[in-house]
UniProtKB/TrEMBL annotation:
Protein name: Phosphate-specific transport system accessory protein PhoU
Record keyword Cell membrane present: no
Superkingdom of the source species: Bacteria
UniProt keyword terms in alphabetical order: Cytoplasm, Phosphate transport, Transport
InterPro entries per the UniProt record, alphabetical: PhoU, PhoU-like_sf, PhoU_dom
Transport found in the keyword field: yes
GO CC, alphabetical: cytoplasm
Organism this protein belongs to: candidate division WOR-1 bacterium RIFOXYB2_FULL_48_7
Length: 222
């Protein structure tokens, strides 16, 4: 019985490590995707796109391990919530990875022509979105519901950046229709970063559920 429990704990630790490995890769890709835009670095953007297969494989490993633990260990209480949360986090990380690929694809588009304007708010928004992913994963590792709840404020800041960037680009396009092909990819990137923030918030909500057993998806102030 003791040996079985030790094996279970090792498998939980493995799940934790897989999530952190995937999260680290996703965080790095967010940063690299914005760098690829600023430097018109097509090769870097292509590396991000190619790395998506590895992220997808990690999500499958996380899912398989979670399902195996649920089927063979019949976990209770906090362990059960840890496993189900791990599975949901894997899904959110995979979607964040897809959004990083979307940004990389826009970087390739933008590299074909001069940037419409210096990138000021977009890198700030990207850094905040990346920090949100990191903070959500840190809350997961530390079982820290208070830290998880701090993402609500970050999400509001990301939304403000999206609105600011969108309004500025819309104003530029209204004044000069020839800028549309350079402005639209930047607007899409702001939208992708906002969605990354949404997924990070999803992870934070799952962490609160894992720690407190409380579902707050539709009532984050609870």
């Amino acid at each position: 019985m003791i040996e079985s429990r030790e094996h279970f704990q090792k498998e939980l630790a493995k799940l934790n490590d897989l999530i952190l490995k995937m999260g680290g890769m996703i965080e790095a890709n967010i940063a690299k995707s914005i760098k690829a835009i600023a430097q018109a670095d097509v090769r870097m953007a292509q590396e991000i796109i190619r790395s998506d297969d590895e992220a997808d494989q990690l999500e499958l490993e996380i899912d398989d391990l979670c399902l195996e633990l649920l089927a063979t260990q019949q976990p209770m209480a906090i362990d059960l919530r840890f496993i189900t949360t791990g599975m949901r986090i894997g899904t959110d990380l995979e979607r964040i990875g897809d959004l990083s690929v979307d940004i990389a694809e826009r970087a390739i588009e933008l590299a074909k022509q001069p940037l419409l304007k210096p990138l000021i708010d977009t890198p700030k928004m990207a850094e905040l979105a990346q920090q949100m992913v990191h903070k959500a994963l840190d809350a997961f590792v530390k079982r820290d519901a208070y830290l998880a709840r701090s993402l609500w404020e970050d999400e509001a800041k990301v939304d403000k950046y999206r609105d600011l960037i969108t309004e500025e680009l819309e104003d530029i396009m209204r004044k000069d229709a020839s800028t549309v092909t350079r402005a639209l990819p930047l607007m899409l990137i702001a939208r992708y970063l906002e969605r990354i923030g949404d997924h990070a918030t999803n992870i934070a909500e799952d962490v609160v559920y894992m720690v407190e057993g409380k579902v707050i998806k539709h009532n984050p102030k609870s």
